[in-house]
Amino acid sequence: EEAVDTTTTEAPVTTVVTTTATPVTLPEGAIAWQIDTVHAKPGQTGVQVPVYIIDQNGVNLPIGGAQFRITNEDGVSYVSSTGSDAYGVSIVDNPETREYAFASSGDAAITGADKANVVILTFDIPDTASGEYPVTFDKSFFYVSSIDGLNMSDRILTFDGAIIIDPETTTTTEPVATTTTTTEEPAATTTTTAEEPAVTTTTEEPAA
């Protein structure tokens, strides 16, 4: 009997799997925006890539607004963005240029907490995708301003991320060898002994 190959296919999910980020040391008074690195499977849709704040020193940097651009390597399809949960304002995005912008809705500066999401990017993964696809900040298009309109881009460091495609897992089931042993009982043998009847001969003496 031949081995049977069984392929297990998982339905697309939108669960974000986050890798452990390398600890970073930030200059005094600065924070960082980190593009996450996530794992996905070929054909998966709705894969979310968060861009979150690193502020382990509790700077709580107040800003007035920001304009930035994030791109990805060809091979995965950008879908949309949501946010900003971190700063409590809506992000305006241009899907064609991949430029994003947001600003305080009033006269007060806005701040974001450590690990809060600046924006969440959503991607679809083609069936043919494999390997790693970097998702990166465009260093030439990154501007953060104070509530007074002053340039404070140098107070926010940026770190890139990626989408890593995990190969499909194929499980091969080997057939189980079955041995059947048949034991035959010996046939019972019946022996019948036939006894011959005894022959009796009587001899009479002649009369005198």
What does this structure look like?
With 208 residues, this protein is mainly beta. 0% of the residues lie in helices and 38% in strands. The chain contains no helices and 13 strands. It has strands spanning 4-7, 31-35, 37-40, 47-54, 65-72, 77-82, 92-94, 99-103, 117-124, 131-145, 156-159, 161-165, 170-173. The strands form three sheets. The protein has a six-stranded mixed sheet with strand order 3-12-10-5-8-7, with no helix packed on it. The chain has a five-stranded mixed sheet with strand order 6-9-4-2-11, with no helix packed on it. Strand 7 and strand 8 (99-103) form a beta hairpin.
The pLDDT mean sits at 83
Largest sheet: 6 strands, mixed
In total, how many beta strands? 13
Shape: elongated
Given as residue ranges, the uncertain stretches (5+ residues, pLDDT < 50) are: 4-20
Number of helices: 0
The helicity comes to under 10%
Strand order of the largest sheet: 3-12-10-5-8-7
| Structural category | mainly beta
Summarize the helices and strands and which ones pair or pack.
Layout: E1 4-7, E2 31-35, E3 37-40, E4 47-54, E5 65-72, E6 77-82, E7 92-94, E8 99-103, E9 117-124, E10 131-145, E11 156-159, E12 161-165, E13 170-173
Parallel strand pairs: 2-11, 3-12
Antiparallel strand pairs: 1-13, 2-4, 4-9, 5-8, 5-10, 6-9, 7-8, 10-12
